[in-house]
């Protein structure tokens, strides 16, 4: 088995400040969490920005640029900027910071889908900020738009024009076939780094059978040309990522995907989750990839060829 890539998704755009006092929202907090996660063994940092006053997911390049150079200076980790942003943002908004920063890696969501966060609203009794409740509750009528035209545009703008390589976010079997379609159009080059996403309401559920089936179909569609990683929402994070590691895949953890470190216990830092999955995968005999390994395995352009 290859060395294992640990991605840490530091803050995301799903959770809100009322859910955990430990969710990083300011540039200082995002920087500290990201750097500590890299020191704990994450070779890839998947990054979103937030408004430092309200904690609201932000597409503002200034919010990104308040932490990206600091993280780059402090770690050798690969900086991977989300192009998914938040499902409530337009595609132009989602692309503003990635276009400016020209990172080595970007996420790329492989299909349009429901992205239903509203069940989480029912579990919150005290709201910290006004935006949070409508943001969560209105997700019962929200489409996360990633049409073939959107995908082609991101491949062109970030890949062909800026040399980024992708974390292909696949929430469903159908998204693997969409990726294959873009391979057939000659718009993506191997090796493909495919993130299997479990547990978003609107995507596939966190059943182990779904993971084995995703791998079976990905093996058929991409053969030796791909590697897979797994992220799973909430309490499914560690069971599903551990299963991926046992199957030869890679793992993603971080407060974007789960706020917990154990049953009933909030994670205080992203690094805690990295330490936990690192211990598990090393106990399985997997060797953790360093950032240089990640760059070589994924064919990245190098940190010196970004605008960060
Ligand atoms: N929030 C995750 C479910 C993205 O940033 O492009 C998937 C994600 C999307 O990380
Ligand atoms: Zn993300």
Commentary on this structure:
The chain has 308 residues and is α/β, with parallel strands linked by helices. It has one domain (6-113, 144-305): Aldolase class I (TIM Barrel, Alpha-Beta Barrel). Helix content is 37%, strand content 18%. It has eleven helices and 14 strands. The chain has helices spanning 27-40, 61-65, 68-74, 91-101, 132-137, 148-160, 173-184, 208-222, 237-246, 270-283, 291-298, and strands at 6-9, 44-47, 49-50, 57-58, 78-81, 105-109, 113-114, 143-144, 165-170, 192-198, 226-232, 250-253, 260-262, 265-266. An eight-stranded parallel barrel has the order 1-2-5-6-9-10-11-12, surrounded by eight helices. The protein has a two-stranded antiparallel sheet with strand order 3-4. A two-stranded antiparallel sheet has the order 7-8. Strand 9 (165-170), helix 7 and strand 10 (192-198) form a beta-alpha-beta unit. The radius of gyration is 18 Å and the shape is globular. Bound molecules: (5S)-5-amino-3-OXO-hexanoic acid and zinc ion (ZN). (5S)-5-amino-3-OXO-hexanoic acid binds at residues 9, 12, 14, 82-84, 107, 109, 169, 197, 200, 256.
In short:
By secondary structure, the protein is of the alpha/beta class. The protein is 37% helix and 18% strand.
């Amino acid at each position: 088995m290859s060395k294992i890539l640990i991605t840490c998704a530091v803050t995301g755009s799903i959770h809100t400040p009322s859910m955990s006092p430990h969710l990083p929202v300011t540039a200082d907090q995002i920087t500290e969490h990201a750097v500590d996660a890299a020191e704990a063994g994450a070779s890839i940092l998947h990054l979103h920005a937030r408004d430092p006053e309200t904690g609201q997911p932000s597409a503002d390049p200034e919010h990104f640029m308040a932490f990206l150079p600091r993280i780059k200076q402090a770690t050798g980790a690969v900086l991977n900027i989300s192009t998914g942003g938040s499902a409530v943002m337009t595609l132009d908004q989602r692309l503003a910071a990635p276009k400016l920063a020209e990172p080595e890696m970007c996420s790329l969501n492989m299909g349009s889908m429901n992205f239903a966060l509203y069940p989480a609203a029912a579990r919150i009794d005290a709201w910290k900020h006004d935006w949070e409740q409508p943001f969560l509750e209105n997700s019962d009528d929200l489409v996360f738009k990633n049409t073939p035209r959107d995908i082609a545009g991101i491949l062109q703008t970030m890949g062909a024009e800026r040399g980024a390589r992708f974390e292909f976010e696949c929430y469903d079997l159908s998204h693997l076939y969409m990726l294959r379609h873009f391979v057939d159009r000659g718009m993506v080059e191997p090796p493909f780094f495919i993130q299997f996403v479990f547990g978003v309401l609107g995507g596939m559920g966190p059943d182990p059978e779904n993971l084995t089936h995703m791998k079976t179909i990905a093996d058929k569609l991409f053969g030796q040309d791909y590697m897979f990683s797994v992220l799973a929402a909430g309490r499914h994070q560690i069971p599903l990522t551990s299963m991926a590691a046992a199957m030869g895949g890679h793992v993603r953890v971080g407060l974007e995907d789960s706020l917990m470190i154990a049953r009933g216990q909030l994670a205080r830092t992203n690094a805690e989750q990295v330490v936990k999955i690192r211990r598990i995968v090393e106990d399985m005999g997997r060797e953790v990839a360093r950032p240089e390994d990640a760059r070589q395995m994924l064919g990245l352009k190098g940190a010196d060829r970004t605008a960060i």
